[in-house]
Structures are given as C-alpha cells and as structure tokens.
C-alpha cells in the first residue's frame, strides 16, 4: 500500500535581497487580484456568467494582466479558501448542535426539579429551603431558555450561510479590522499606523502552483541544487506579464546560495527526478510568505513510500504512549507482549503556545528516533475531544471553569498530528487503537501485579492492543 503525505519545507530569505524587494511590491498586486477573484467566484451568479473554469481564467488573464499560471495558482488558492471555510462552518454547525442538545438536557433537568417542588409551593406547604430552591430553579430556567434560544438562532443563521453558500471572510482578519474603532485601547496612536499593520497582515502570501508535467515541476519557479557549494538556487518568473522578450533575463528574479535545513535530501531527489525525467518526479509548489518584516520560502511537495519500506515492525515489540496533561508516558513491550521498559517525558509548558508546540516536537523526535533504533512500531489512543469540547458551555462555577481550562489546554490533536508527521518522515509505523477502557483494564489486570501506576499500565495496554493481544475488562460479580 502506498503511503502519501504533503510536506512543507521552509527557509528564511535575506532581507536585503533583490527577491525580497520584488516580493514587497508584487504581493500587493497578487493579493488584490486574489480578493477580486474571490469576490467573483463566491458570487451567486458565478456559474451563470462563466460556463467553465477555463472561460473564467481567460477572462481573468485579460482583466488583470497576469501570467496564466499565476491566475491558475490564485484560482486554486481561492478554491482552497472556499473549501476550508465551508468545512469550518460545517464543524461549527455540528458543535452548535451538540451545544443545543446539552442545553436542552439542562432545561429538561431544571423543569423536572421544578415539577417536583411545584405541588408543595402552590399549596404553600414548602419549607424555606424548598422555596429558595424553587426560586433559584425558576431563575436558572429563565436564563437557560434564553441561552437555548440564542443557540438556536445561531444555528439557523449558520445553516442559512452553508445552504446558500455565503462566504463571510475578512482578508487581514476581522479582529484586526475592528481595532481601528478603538485605536488607543489597542495601542495605536494614529489610524495610519493601524492601516499599515492591517495591510501587512492582509498582503503576505504569494502561492505558485506546480505541475508534474512542467519543466522543473513548476512553470513560475525553477529550483536547482549546486553540489560544489552544497546550496540551492531559485529563479522566479515575475508574476505580471510585462513587455519582455522571449530571452529577456529581466523577467526573472534570481536568488542564489541559500540552504535548507530539513528534508534536504528529499528536495535534491525532487530536483533530480524532474531534471532526468525519472518515474518518481513530482509537482513542486512554492509559497512566499511574510511574517512581520521577514520573508520565507516554503517548498510544498508530496512524499510517498510503500508500507513495506517501514523501518519498524510490531512483531519486534511495540512502544505504547499515553498522553496526559503534563507528561507523556512510554511503555515498551517485546515480541511476546511482555513489559521491557518504562519512561516518562515531562511537559513543562501547557496549552497551545509556540513553546508548548516546540517542546512536544522535541520529545516526539526523541521517541520516534528511539523506535527506529529498536525497530518497534508506535501505538497511541485514537482520541477525539471535539464533541466533549463542544459540550463545554461557559460557566461561572469554579469546578466547571477549571474542568474547561484543563480540557482546552489538553492539546491532543496537535500531539497526534505531530506524531503522525514525524513518524512518517522517519518511516515509523504509527498505529491508532481504540481508547475504550485502557486505564480500567490496566488497573484491573496489570497495575497491582507489575507495580505500575495507571498511566504506565494504560500505555502498556495500548502497546499490547497493537500487537493483537486481547485484554478485556472483566465484569465485577458481587
């Protein structure tokens, strides 16, 4: 079976280079055309105005004066934005539906409690405590119904947007746009300073789509490797047409002698595959991305290999991982499912910040490299907290607030994604197992016998599950 994944490699560009100077001016035109194309493609009459996508692209080439490949890249990018937007809105709708169900459950529970107290209250037979509870529940019910009504209105509005394909997107972010109305509160002395920040945040990407059939894998950017200097070079074709001759060198921007730190051999293999027309040649996509005042070059390509090329096997044993708030617990088994090793990796930083991301990345790198060394697969729980997070409603209750904080800082999805990416790069087989009752099975069967804590036991059960050993939770008979 062929395993595929999209890889992005990034390198920073020199600030004073000719390429960066060109990008600072070209990005404004590129992003302006992108907004115009986005407006046209999201218009309700788009399909009536243009019978096919080719007709629309022809219209764009005449209107905006950019190369056909640049227009094609912008159209592909806009399609991606539209697809991502709709996917996000559908996720929001599903989350809202979960919230509505949870709120309806709360309303029913409150009504049930009121109905129990109502007979005594109406006959004036209720105690002070019961009367106080009745009044509190009446007050709660009023606010719960209001909240439920707001959620239902949100749901209807969102459903209308999805049904009628209405796209509400602010390029430059809505958050930054609103800051112009409270300049002093947002630390802006003048409107001009805010406007410059908004423009920089809005105009910061140039995406150039590649094709497997094009020379160098991309018509707009030619990437090459210099073996004597062990560096890379690119030649960027200017995005605007201009009055250039066929052999005019002024239509190209050269950027030479830059290095790539990660996945260097992959990039060299891509260049050679295109150069010598090898069977494994791939399309190479390029994104020029600005972060604050610095420009970065991102090389995007598809990497693939067959599952027979994995460097690890489950018949050697498995490394089971149990992810927790504050640490990752590792339990290692041998070929027969016996426990042969334990290790805990502490996580100092919490939440979704860059420090936490970098820390998780470093630890996962260590774990994956160790799995290659011992030749063992990695196994984790296939957890998904989307529904649980959707159910969590705002609350002033201290217990609920604390639980919500833990839940939202428990960034399992990023941990799982990082593990998938790093395992793929090192050709390590990563297996996702059913998380049901792993901790309970560990407590019941292994913790006391092997002197393990719950997390060590859970990681051990996860490893054994991947090896095919069946550990069932036994029902306790009274």
Describe the fold and architecture.
It is built from 15 helices and 12 strands. It has 478 residues and is α+β, with helices and mostly antiparallel strands. Helix 4 packs antiparallel against helix 5 and helix 9 (354-374) crosses helix 12. The radius of gyration is 29 Å and the shape is globular. It has helices spanning 18-41, 46-49, 53-64, 68-122, 128-163, 174-178, 191-202, 264-275, 354-374, 386-391, 398-409, 412-425, 438-445, 447-450, 454-467, and strands spanning 2-12, 205-208, 221-226, 231-237, 252-258, 285-291, 294-306, 313-324, 327-333, 339-346, 376-381, 430-433. The protein folds into 3 domains: 2-17 and 204-307, no CATH class; 43-166; 311-467, Ribonuclease H-like superfamily/Ribonuclease H (Nucleotidyltransferase, domain 5, 2-Layer Sandwich). The two termini are 49 Å apart. Strand 9 and strand 10 form a beta hairpin. The protein has a 5-stranded mixed β-sheet with strand order 10-9-8-11-12, with helices on both faces.
Could you provide a short overview of the structure?
With 478 residues, the protein is α+β, with helices and mostly antiparallel strands.
């Amino acid at each position: 079976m062929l395993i595929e994944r999209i890889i992005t490699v990034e390198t920073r560009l020199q600030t004073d280079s000719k390429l960066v100077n060109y990008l600072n001016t070209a990005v404004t035109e590129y992003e302006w055309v992108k907004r115009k194309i986005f407006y046209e493609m999201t218009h309700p009459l788009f399909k009536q105005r243009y019978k096919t996508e080719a007709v629309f692209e022809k219209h764009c080439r005449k209107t905006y004066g950019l190369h056909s490949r640049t227009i094609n890249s912008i159209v592909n990018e806009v399609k991606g934005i539209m697809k991502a937007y709709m996917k996000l809105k559908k996720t929001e709708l599903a989350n809202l539906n979960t919230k509505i169900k949870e709120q309806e459950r709360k309303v029913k529970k409150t009504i049930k409690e009121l109905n129990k107290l109502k007979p005594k209250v109406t006959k004036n037979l209720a105690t002070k405590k019961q009367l106080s509870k009745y009044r509190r529940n009446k007050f709660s019910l009023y606010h719960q119904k209001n909240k439920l009504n707001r959620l239902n209105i949100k749901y209807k509005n969102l459903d209308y947007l999805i049904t009628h394909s209405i796209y509400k997107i602010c390029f430059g972010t809505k958050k930054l746009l609103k800051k112009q109305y409270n300049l002093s509160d947002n630390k802006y002395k003048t409107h001009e300073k805010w406007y410059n920040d908004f423009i920089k945040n809005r105009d910061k990407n140039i995406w150039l789509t590649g094709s497997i059939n094009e020379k160098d894998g991309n018509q707009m950017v030619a990437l090459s490797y210099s073996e004597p200097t062990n560096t890379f070079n690119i030649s960027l074709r200017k995005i605007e047409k201009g009055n250039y001759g066929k052999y005019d060198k002024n239509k190209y921007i050269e950027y030479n002698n830059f290095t790539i730190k990660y996945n260097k051999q992959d990039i060299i293999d891509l260049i050679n595959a295109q150069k010598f027309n090898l069977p494994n040649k791939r399309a190479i996509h390029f994104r020029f991305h600005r972060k604050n005042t610095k420009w970065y070059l991102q090389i995007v390509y598809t990497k693939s290999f067959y599952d027979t090329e994995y460097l690890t096997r489950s018949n050697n044993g498995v490394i089971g991982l149990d992810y927790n708030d504050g640490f990752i617990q590792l339990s290692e088994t041998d070929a027969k499912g016996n426990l042969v090793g334990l290790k805990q990796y502490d996580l100092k930083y919490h939440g979704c910040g860059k420090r936490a991301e970098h820390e998780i990345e470093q630890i996962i790198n260590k774990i994956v490299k160790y799995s290659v060394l011992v030749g063992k697969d990695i196994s984790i729980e296939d957890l998904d907290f989307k529904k649980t997070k959707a159910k969590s409603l705002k609350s002033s209750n201290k217990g609920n607030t604390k639980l919500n904080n833990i839940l939202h800082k428990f960034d399992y999805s990023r941990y799982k994604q990082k593990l998938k990416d790093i395992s793929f790069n090192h050709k390590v087989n990563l297996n996702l197992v059913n998380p049901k009752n792993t901790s309970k099975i560990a407590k019941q069967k292994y913790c006391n016998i092997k002197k393990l804590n719950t997390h060590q036991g859970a990681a051990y059960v996860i490893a054994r599950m991947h090896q095919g050993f069946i550990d069932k939770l036994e029902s306790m008979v009274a």
